[in-house]
Write a structure and sequence with these properties.
Blueprint (H helix, E strand, L loop, with lengths): L2 H8 L5 E2 L10 E3 L12 H6 L4 E4 L10 E3 L3 H13 L6 E5 L4 H12 L5 E3 L9 H7 L7 E5 L7 H9 L3 E4 L7 H4 L2 H8 L1 H9 L2 E5 L5 H4 L5 E5 L14 E5 L5 E5 L5 E5 L8 H13 L4 H10 L8 E5 L2 E5 L6 H14 L4 E6 L8 H13 L5 E5 L4 H7 L2 E3 L2 H11 L5 E5 L8 H6 L5
Parallel strand pairs: 1-2, 2-3, 3-4, 5-7, 5-8, 6-7, 8-9, 9-10, 15-19, 16-17, 16-19, 17-18
Antiparallel strand pairs: 11-12, 12-13, 14-15
Helix pairs in contact: 1-3, 3-5, 4-11, 4-12, 6-9, 11-12, 13-14, 14-15
Length: 441
């Protein structure tokens, strides 16, 4: 079966899925092999649950009714996604970076949706499987697509770019994320800038936040660049693609200008100065794609952070700042800075270990412990074995895991605190929230 023939087959399906448990009538199920499971084994269950077809690569299933056999189901998913994408002559915006990808994607989505029919990555489906699923989900009514691209090693952003073929793209920032896979900060710079290099090769447009280190230099190969930044001086205010930070407390307030130098303000529901870059990116893309400035401001003001990202929760007599979706040294410091600058006392920080740091792990956890020990916090708890030596060195409370944290929290029974909660996803720091509020689980 050729790619065109297979593509024709799947046009009759409602949507693609990779998990038979999340299927339904009329879906197309890709039976993907993974380290823990082989999707081929659940292909029959998917068809029994109503899937129209299952794309399989187990030779033993070849010829089975309802199953479309291919040599490699994952490679076929990627090829079909590219094939589908090439049927669209619309802007495809690629977003990558060490921190803030999902928040930026959601802000850009909400801003552009004020004028266009936007299709965007759902949640954080931003890898070699999630990106193809996002692309296949585009339909004939889509005006603009926003594709989030994640990576933990070099070459991955290049692969995703050659699947999604973005016409526009941006890097949110370069930070200490996935150091193990990238091989240090220089590896991160090289890996993330693969998006800029793809845009340079294809004549695409690169958006460049001049406030972030490395980005202007990394984007030099891109011939078509759109720069955005804060006003450098009072006299510069009024220029397009400049976004001023007017206030940080209690939430970020920004000001930006239209082509006639008319000013617009937006009071967002985001906290922490590190979120200025996410907001500024949404403003810049909104203006570039000619979304009216008043609509841009309204989209920013109505955006509510969720999914364990910069959320405030009132629980058990305390106010939690829940940023526990993931963590790396850069994002941890940025979020802690904002929390300490704008949260009333008493303050408590519950920090989970940071993963995928490889040989840099001990050094980065030690530096984080030293840093947090000097912050204006009334209580600090470090969770996870990677923090054990540093906690002892700096005299900070140490716990093995989240189960111990829950037990400690119940015994401590704090009240009236502003509590910062963050850690790598694998630490599952959000289980404390689920314990305190079962309705969230």
């Amino acid at each position: 079966m050729t790619l065109d023939q297979l593509y024709t087959k799947i046009q009759a399906c409602t949507r693609p899925v990779i998990d038979s448990r999340h299927g339904g009538v009329g879906v197309l199920c890709f039976a993907l092999r993974a380290s823990r499971a082989d999707g081929n084994e659940s292909a029959r269950a998917a068809l029994g649950a109503g899937a129209r077809y299952a794309v399989v690569d187990d030779p033993g299933l070849k010829g089975t009714e309802g199953m479309l056999w291919v040599e490699d189901a994952r490679a076929t998913l990627q090829a079909l996604a590219r094939h589908h994408r090439r049927r669209f002559s619309i802007p495809i915006v690629g977003i990558t970076g060490s921190n803030g990808k999902t928040t930026t994607k959601e802000l850009v989505r909400d801003v552009l949706a004020r004028r266009y029919r936007v299709h965007a990555t759902a949640g954080n489906l931003n890898n070699h499987i999630g990106v193809p699923l996002t692309l296949i989900g585009m339909n004939r009514e889509t005006d603009i697509a926003i594709v989030e691209m994640g990576a933990n090693h070099q070459g991955e952003i290049d692969l995703l770019s050659r699947i999604a073929e973005p016409t526009h793209g941006l890097i949110t920032n370069i930070g200490k994320a996935h150091l193990e896979g990238f091989g240090g900060i220089e590896g991160v710079k090289k890996g993330k800038s693969e998006l800029y290099r793809y845009l340079a090769e294809t004549g695409g447009v690169g958006f460049v936040n001049r406030e972030e280190k490395f980005l202007e230099e990394l984007s030099i190969p891109v011939a078509r660049r759109i720069f955005y930044q804060r006003p450098r001086a009072t006299g510069e205010e009024g220029q397009r693609y400049q976004i001023a930070l007017r206030s940080e407390k209690p939430h970020l307030q920004v000001r930006f200008w239209d082509i006639r130098s008319h000013a617009f303000r937006a009071s967002t529901q985001l906290t922490g100065v590190h979120n200025w870059g996410n907001i500024a990116t949404a403003v810049a893309l909104g203006q570039y794609f000619k979304v009216p400035e008043r609509d841009i401001a309204e989209a920013l003001e109505t955006y509510v952070p969720q999914n364990n990202r910069s959320e405030w929760r009132e629980l058990a007599g305390n106010r939690f700042f829940l940023d526990a979706y993931n963590a790396n040294p850069t994002s941890m410091r940025h979020a802690l800075d904002g929390f300490c600058r704008h949260s009333p006392t008493p303050r408590m920080a519950l920090l989970g270990a940071m993963f995928e740091l490889g040989p840099y792990s001990e050094q980065e956890h030690d530096q984080m412990a030293a840093y947090v020990a000097e912050l204006p916090l009334d209580e600090v708890v470090l969770v996870g074995q990677a923090f054990a030596p540093a906690a002892k060195r700096y005299g900070l409370t140490f716990l093995n895991g989240v189960a111990d944290l829950i037990e400690w929290f119940e015994a401590r029974n704090p009240s009236g605190f502003h509590i910062f909660l963050k850690g790598s996803r694998g630490m599952r720091m959000d289980q404390l929230i689920e314990h305190l509020d079962p309705a969230t689980s």
